[in-house]
Amino acid sequence: MEYKDYYEIMGVGREATQDEIKRAYRKLARKYHPDVSEAKDAEDRFKEIGEAYEVLKDPEKRAAYDQLGNQWQAGQDFRPPPGWDAGFEFSDNGRGRAEDFGFSDFFEALYGQRFHRGTTGARGRDNLRMRGQDHHAKVLVDVEDSYTGATRSIQLRMPELTGDGHVTTRNRTLKVKIPKGIRQGQQIRLAGQGGAGFGGGEAGDLFLEVEFNPHARYRVEGADVHVDLPVTPWEAALGARIRLVTPSGPVDVTVPPNSQGGKKLRLSGRGLPGKKPGNLYAELDIVIPPARDEESREAYRRMQAAFEFNPREDVKA
């Protein structure tokens, strides 16, 4: 997927005001409109300009795009960094599906999920009383929080338009209760923490979509948790009883004799808690002791002499 420099496409600087972006779009749209332009790439340029304007005209999308930084070059291979939009607060916009507009994979990767949301705000009109828009944000929590439940301070950034037409962000901090057993992709609803109502209408809600922080040991797949379990060659060959540290506490696991690296030991119900708890899978990682001195090298020579074993004997040339 190629990185798109929307500012370069629009021919404006990153410090451009919203009015400057609007004027640039009108100029380029007239120049490359397929009905009037004679340029061979007019249709492609018109679509590209429309996509860039869709992002830069919207303070929310623009602020999110800006926080990616400018270290990428146009056309460079790009993948969104993990959690790039965590803590960024979006309102519902109800503008339909991104593919309906023919936007690129780059746009879809950044905004697709939010762009697909239908509006749930501004409903309940009654004598000009309007409910505020619902807001959405992605938050990162630790996998251990799902095992025990927790209360965390979450910092969110909400885009705002300044009086001189520039986009900035307003920060706010909320104390959020993380429910025990929360899964990735599930949402926490904070009633009344969305957009303000109009004419005395109630405020919208804030929906926090949960993802887990990357962990040095644990990998989460649905309700299941995976962890690497380092073992020695003799523990794998002879079998062993090993103490394994898990998010729910230490537990003793049995390594069967003649286990191979990559073998998974299932600990039923030790995954994320819930009505149907997940499992924890300990994957054996056989660690070879280094031969740092003559004594250890001699031990390996004795092992070599003791075993008639070739792990590549079934590999044909």
Can I get a quick summary?
By secondary structure, this protein is of the alpha+beta class. It has helices at 6-10, 18-32, 42-56, 59-66, 105-115, 143-148, 233-238, 294-306; strands spanning 89-91, 135-141, 150-161, 167-178, 187-190, 206-212, 218-221, 224-231, 240-246, 249-255, 264-267, 280-286.
What does this entry look like structurally?
The chain is of the alpha+beta class. The protein has a domain at 218-306: Urease metallochaperone UreE, N-terminal domain (HSP40/DNAj peptide-binding domain), CATH 2.60.260.20. The protein contains eight helices and twelve strands. The strands form four sheets. Strands 1-2-6-5 form a four-stranded mixed beta sheet. Strand 3 and strand 4 form a beta hairpin. 26% of the residues are buried. Mean pLDDT is 88; it is low at 94-98 and 116-126.
Q: What string gives the helices and strands in order?
A: HHHHEHEHEEEEEEHEEEEH
Q: How can the largest sheet be summarized?
A: 4 strands, mixed
What structural class do you assign from the helix and strand content?
A: alpha+beta
Q: Can you give the helix content as a percent range?
A: 10-25%
- Looking at the overall shape, the CATH architecture of the domain at 218-306 is Sandwich
Oligomer: single chain
Q: Output the CATH homologous superfamily of the domain at 218-306.
A: Urease metallochaperone UreE, N-terminal domain
Mean pLDDT level = 88
Radius of gyration: 28 Å
- Uncertain runs are 94-98, 116-126
Number of helices: 8
The end-to-end distance, rounded to whole angstroms, is 38 Å
